[in-house]
Amino acid sequence: MELGIGTMASGWKTRYLNLEETTRATMYRPTVAEIDLTAIRDNLRAIRAFTPLKTQVIGVVKADAYGHGAARIAAVLEQEQVRLLAVATPDEAVELRENGITAELLVLGNSPADFVPYAVTNNVALTTVNQATTMMYAAAAGTHTVRLHYKVDTGMGRAGVLADNATKQILYSAAVPRVSIVGLYSHFACAGSDPEFTALQTARFAAVVRELRAGGLQPAMVHLANSAGMFTSPGVMLDGVRPGILLYGCPPVPAPTCPVRPVLSLRTKLEMVKELPAGHGIGYGRTFITDRPTHMALIPIGYADGYLRGLSNKAHVILRGRFAPVVGRVSMDVCALDVTDIPAAMPGDRVTLIGEQDGCSITADELAELMGTISYEVLTGISKRVPRVYIDRSP
């Protein structure tokens, strides 16, 4: 059943948000990513129910909210009283402000000096990783005070002050004029696969926190646990947790105590159906040769949309309650299906590449496994050419 304005489904009113824009973007091409905003709300509530009452959920909306559309997702999280949103880059922070998001923002990555004036006047906290960065931010803040989260490297080996040297540097930074250290955090390297090293990172971080508090620094937001760490190290859900992929319904580790569901579905429609004889190649390189008279169908999606070549001759789609194999190489703009065993298939039929349809399901994790990667890459790789259609099943 197609859902649209005023359509009733399971007792909920379903509506497409920003319908004019959605219609304009999709009227000539049926390939869309459907974003279920009710699932975001439900996932957030499940995460909150799992975390201690004192622990804030930091809404991670970097990388365009993992491909779901940062402005829309941030607006829903703001409605649900999420007080801190995390982005990766200054540009991502500006995008949210320009789209009316007023919640406090934290930039997890590096920020240049010329962004600091914007940050201090727009409630954007920055990440600092050493004394030099802290001094640069202070100098760029002018007469304002720049709010900082200090990142500690407890074993990830990327940005951050090394844990062994952290206390002295952070206390020194806290004394710098026009600087306010409001947060302290680190990041797990392998929370889902190496409990011993994760415990070591936790111990290193806890030691830094103790030493800083003994030195008189009391950062308001101490945060360590990511999506995996929430389940493998539940004792480190401190002042805040940073559920990224979990919020979007793809737990990186088994999470039966925190039921979430996927937010994004990737859909299109059959463009054409064509009969090919046995022995006929399909696609570039003729990597698939028909071994029988074959009904080949084209769908208007390809690697320029984020449906990648690594899925060639491996993936399936859902069509009329059946799984149809992707055959031949995925091209830039189209890919081919073998619909011989679905004789009723015809142009205009709905096709699901990620999501549920007619009792069948394909997940981003399943596509990731076919390509030897992770669901994060599958979701963030869906390109801007694919319009996001926002569906809200709120009462």
From TrEMBL:
GO CC field: cytosol
Pfam families, alphabetized: Ala_racemase_C (PF00842), Ala_racemase_N (PF01168)
Residues recorded with modification N6-(pyridoxal phosphate)lysine: K62
Requisite cofactors: pyridoxal 5'-phosphate
Record-level GO BP terms: D-alanine biosynthetic process; peptidoglycan biosynthetic process
Keywords in alphabetical order: Isomerase, Pyridoxal phosphate
GO function terms (MF aspect): alanine racemase activity; pyridoxal phosphate binding
Pathway given in the UniProt record: Amino-acid biosynthesis; D-alanine biosynthesis; D-alanine from L-alanine: step 1/1
Domain Alanine racemase C-terminal: 263-391
Function as written in the Swiss-Prot or TrEMBL entry: Catalyzes the interconversion of L-alanine and D-alanine. May also act on other amino acids.
Family: Belongs to the alanine racemase family.
Name by which UniProt lists this protein: Alanine racemase
Organism: Candidatus Cryosericum septentrionale
Gene: alr
